[in-house]
Amino acid sequence: MFDHPSYDHHEGVHFFEDERSGLKAIIAVHSTARGPAAGGCRMWDYDTGEDALRDALRLSQGMSFKNAMADLPLGGGKAVIWGNSRTGKSKELFEAFGRAIESLNGSYYTAEDVGIDTDDIAIVSTQTKYVAGLDTGAAASGDPSPTTALGVYRGIKACAERAFGTGDLSGRVIAVQGVGSVGGYLCDHLANEGAKLFIADIDKVELEAVRSRTGAEIIAPESIYDTDAEIFSPNALGAIINPQTLPRLKAKVIAGGANNQLASPEMGFAVQERGILYAPDYVINGGGIINVAAEISGEYSRDWVMTKLDTLVDTLGHVLDEALSANEPTHLVADRMARARIASSRPA
Ligand SMILES: NC(=O)c1ccc[n+]([C@@H]2O[C@H](COP(=O)([O-])OP(=O)(O)OC[C@H]3O[C@@H](n4cnc5c(N)ncnc54)[C@H](O)[C@@H]3O)[C@@H](O)[C@H]2O)c1
C-alpha cells in the first residue's frame, strides 16, 4: 500500500467485506487535518480490486483538496462499493455499508456519488449518523447534484470570461459528456442562457430527456471529443483527458463536474501547451460538498451554501488568473493552494 502510485500519505485505507450481503467496499481517509473526512460513495462494477483501490485513493485525495478549496472544516475521504449499481443493490448491502462507516467512529462522513442515490443513503443512515445527502431530517440537504451543477455552470462562465473575454454563454458551443445528475442540471442552466449544446451519454433515456428539455444535439459517446465545440464539459467519469483524447479536442476551455478528469498530472501540462484553459475539477465541482457540509454542520442553511458558492467561484477565478499570469498549468496552481490550506490546518 505504501508504495502504491496513488497513495499520498493517506491516514487510513479500510477494506470491508460482508459475506452475507456481498458488500465489498473500500473507505479511504486521506486527511482529517481540517476536520472529519467527507466525500461521497461511488458504486461501480470495477474490473479488478486494484481498479477499485486506485479510484478510492485518488478520489479521497481529491476530496481533501476539494474541501480545502471550498474552505470547509472538513478533511478528505471517499468510499467505493465494488458492484453493479443497476443489479447489485440491496437493503442488506447498504446496511452493512452503514455499519462499516459507523465502525470508523466519525472519521469519515459519506454521501451520494456515481451509482448511489438518496434512497440508498437513507438505508445507510439507519446504521450510522455519519452520513449526509439525506432527503428527510432536521438538517437534510438532499441531492447535492443541483448545487454541484450550479457551481459548474458559474465556473464555466468564469472560464469563458478569461478565454473569450466574456462570461456570456449565449451562442457558445458547448460539448457536454455525461448528462446524469450533474450533467443534466448543468445542461438546463446552459440552455437557459442560450448556449448551443452537444451531448453524449451511454444512457439513452437520460439523453432523450435532456434533448427534449434543452434542444441539445445528441452525439455518439466516442465522438464527443471530436465535436467542434468551444467548451468541453466532462460530467461522466474520470481520466478522460489523456494522450488519446486531448489531441482530438478543439475546445479552448475544459470545465465540468467530473472528478479526476486528468489521466495524470502530466496531462495538465499538455492541456496548457495546447492553449486550453482547464478548470481544476475539484475546485469547479465543489458546490455539492458545500451543500453536504451544511448538513454535516447540523443546521442546513441555503443562504450559507450560496455564500460559500460565491467564495468558491472567486477562488476558481484566483486559480485561473494566477495560472494565466504566471504561465503555469491551472492544476499546479490549485494543488499548491490546496496543499497550503491543508498544511496550515494541521495541528502543530
Ligand atoms: N453528484 C454530485 O453532486 C457530484 C459532485 C462532485 C463531482 N461529481 C462527479 O461528477 C460526475 C457525474 O456525477 P453524477 O452524480 O452526475 O453521476 P450520474 O451517475 O448521475 O451521471 C453520470 C452519467 O455519465 C454517463 N456516462 C458513463 N460513462 C459514460 C461515457 N463513456 N460517455 C458518456 N457518458 C457516460 C452515465 O450514463 C450517467 O448518465 C462524476 O465524476 C462525479 O464523481 C458529482
Descriptive terms for the model:
348 residues, alpha/beta, Rossmann fold, 6-stranded mixed beta sheet, 11 helices, 12 strands, 42% helix, globular, binds nicotinamide-adenine-dinucleotide
How would you sum up this structure, described in words?
By secondary structure, this protein is an alpha/beta fold. The protein folds into 2 domains: 12-59 and 76-124, Rossmann fold (3-Layer(aba) Sandwich), CATH 3.40.50; 145-286 and 315-339, NAD(P)-binding Rossmann-like Domain (Rossmann fold). 42% of the residues lie in helices and 15% in strands. It has 11 helices and 12 strands. It has helices at residues 49-69, 91-102, 118-124, 145-164, 181-192, 204-214, 265-273, 281-284, 287-296, 302-326, 330-345, and strands at residues 12-18, 23-31, 37-38, 41-44, 75-82, 108-109, 173-177, 196-200, 217-218, 231-234, 253-254, 277-278. The strands form 2 sheets. Strands 1, 2, 3, 4, 5 and 6 form a 6-stranded mixed sheet that branches. A hairpin with a 4-residue loop joins strand 1 and strand 2. Helix 2 packs across helix 3. The radius of gyration is 19 Å and the shape is globular. The two termini are 27 Å apart. The site of nicotinamide-adenine-dinucleotide (NAD) has 26 residues, from helix 4 and helix 5.
Please render the helix and strand layout as text.
Elements: E1 12-18, E2 23-31, E3 37-38, E4 41-44, H1 49-69, E5 75-82, H2 91-102, E6 108-109, H3 118-124, H4 145-164, E7 173-177, H5 181-192, E8 196-200, H6 204-214, E9 217-218, E10 231-234, E11 253-254, H7 265-273, E12 277-278, H8 281-284, H9 287-296, H10 302-326, H11 330-345
Parallel strand pairs: 3-5, 3-6, 4-5, 7-8, 7-10, 8-9, 10-11, 11-12
Antiparallel strand pairs: 1-2, 2-5
The chain binds nicotinamide-adenine-dinucleotide.
Nicotinamide-adenine-dinucleotide (NAD) is lined by residues 113-114, 144-145, 148, 177-183, 200-203, 206, 221, 235-237, 257-259, 285, 288.
